[in-house]
Amino acid sequence: MPAISGMGLVLVVSPLIALIRDQVRKYQQMGIQCDAFDSMQSSEERNDVWRRLERGKVRLLYLSPERLALSSFREKLGRVATVSLVAVDEAHCISQWGGHFRPEYRKLGSYLSSFSNAQKLALTATATKKVKSDIIEALGLNQPQVVVDRYLRDNLKIRVVKCKSYAEQLNDLLQSVLSATGQGIVYAPTRKKVDEIYSALKRSEISCSRYHAGMQHRGRNKSQQEFLANQSQVMVATNAFGMGIDKADIRFVFHAGMPSSLENYVQEIGRAGRDGAEAKCYLFYTGRDYHLQKFIVNKSFPDIDVLKTSYQEIERLVTEYSVKNEAEISENLQQKFLGEDFDVASVMRLFYKEGFIVRSDPSAMDWNMGVVNSQVSMGQNQDAMAAFWQQYPCRKEEQLEKLQNIRDYVTAGDRRNEVIQSYFDL
User: Fold this and answer.
1) Strand, coil or helix: what is 159?
2) Angle CA(157)–CA(198)–CA(162) in degrees, nearest 5?
3) Interior CA angle at 49 toward 46 and 50, to 5°?
4) Phi, psi dihedral angles at 200 (to 5 degrees)
5) What are the Cα distances from residue 10, in Å, to 56, 61, 255?
6) CA gap 110, 89 in Å, rounded
7) What digits encode the pLDDT tens for the residues 290-324?
8) How high is the pLDDT of residue 368?
9) How far apart are CA 259 and CA 268, in angstroms?
10) Which of 119, 173, 340, 379 is most exposed, with the fewest beta carbons within 10 Å of its own?
């Protein structure tokens, strides 16, 4: 509404290229003058957007926080347009306690000082009291109005089913999918489990697609488009799928295992029944789920001494020996820690996410992917690195606390709503 009121340009900061492109396509189909800048565009495509901005033909402009980080971009945008509102989507990415932390999101407050007269709006489906406070502080919001709606809508029919074994869990899940109508999503905690459930559904002749970060970008995109175009009944996915998915008629969201946090759980079941009609949200869990998620947390947070040694080794290879190829760097790290419990992909992924090392190939910028054949360079922000080393141990403890909270939820019986209310401070 602010965008079409003619009061100035509305910027929307969004974390994913796929999400940006989906939103822009929908607004353009509605006849709204909407455009975007993203790293997959050609220089000519970007120039076309600048020309439309200069002619006042853009009301709504989508971009990533990394684009907004460029001072040259902010200066040029300030010359060609008057920004009236900046809306930060998926604002929990600002907070290191928000579950999907993005360092460039954290710096948005300083970037937005270039548009000091613009109003600010931050939106997220899940935010604890701690995350809300973090968002307000990071964006420099002055006594903001905080609006909180219900986390669980009445049309979501929620069940939690305890299973004695993985075989029983899989069987109960399959029976629920077979008896369900309409389209739905099945979330699983690991890529391996996604593949197993996908194969089991295929054997049962259920039309399905799959989505996880171990797949190539083209395959993931194909699966997403099949699901959005109603060409498959079920999407089987890790939590890599779904942020910002805007499909109103999803009739069920099933979890094949306990999610890693209440934030993820609420985000994921919130994709069901957006049209207001009834939707089923079933969580099938076993006693082993907690231990699997705890293993994933431990794997995602390598020992801090290993991280520091790894970073020093990467810096030495890049600066002293001009080794730029990611695969070669990864091989050197693997050799250095030979015989130790060392996951090079987890280490590299964390450094990419924090911006300590940077991939030169825009098509490889998804830090969820493992090692790819790309050129790398060192990041520049030493202050951010110092803060990271200080906060890193707390981040792991926070994830383990989140895991305990979702465990409390699935075992709470009739008290589950109370657990949700208490966790999100409602």
Assistant:
1) strand
2) 40
3) 90
4) -65, -40
5) 12, 6, 37
6) 17
7) 999 999 998 888 889 989 999 999 999 998 888 88
8) 47
9) 9
10) 340
**Given pLDDT bands bounded at 50, 70 and 90, which one contains residue 408?**
very high
CB distance 95 to 135 below 8 Å: yes
Q: Can you list the alpha helix ranges (DSSP code H) found in 229-303?
A: 262-269, 289-300
Question: What would the two tokens of residue 389 be?
Answer: 């080393």
> Is 234 in contact with 185 (CB distance < 8 Å)?
yes
Q: What amino acid occupies position 357?
A: I
Structure tokens at 355: 């911006």
Of 164-168, 169-173, 392-396, the range with the lowest mean pLDDT is 392-396
The full DSSP string for 40-51 is TS-HHHHHHHHH
The one-letter amino acid code at 30 reads: M
Instruction: Answer yes or no: are the C-beta atoms of 61 and 12 closer than 8 Å.
Output: yes
At which residue do the structure tokens 């830090």 appear?
A: 367
Write out the two tokens for 112.
Answer: 């937005």
Bridge partners (DSSP) of residue 85 are 10, 119
Ramachandran quadrant class, 31 (left: phi over 0; alpha: psi -120 to 50; beta: rest): left
Q: What are phi and psi of 365, to 5 degrees?
A: -80, 0
Please count the residues of the chain.
426
pLDDT at 327 over 80: yes
pLDDT of residue 347: 87
Average pLDDT of the residues of the chain:
89
pLDDT digits (tens, 9 = 90+) for 184-226: 999 999 999 999 999 999 999 999 999 998 888 789 889 988 9
Cβ-Cβ contacts under 8 Å for 382 (sequence gap 6 or more) = none
Instruction: For 182-194, give one letter per residue: b (16+ CB within 10 A) or e.
Output: ebbbbbbbbbebb
Alpha helices in 59-190 (DSSP H): 65-68, 71-80, 103-106, 108-111, 129-139, 166-179
Sequence-distant (≥ 6) Cβ neighbours of residue 217 within 8 angstroms: 363, 366
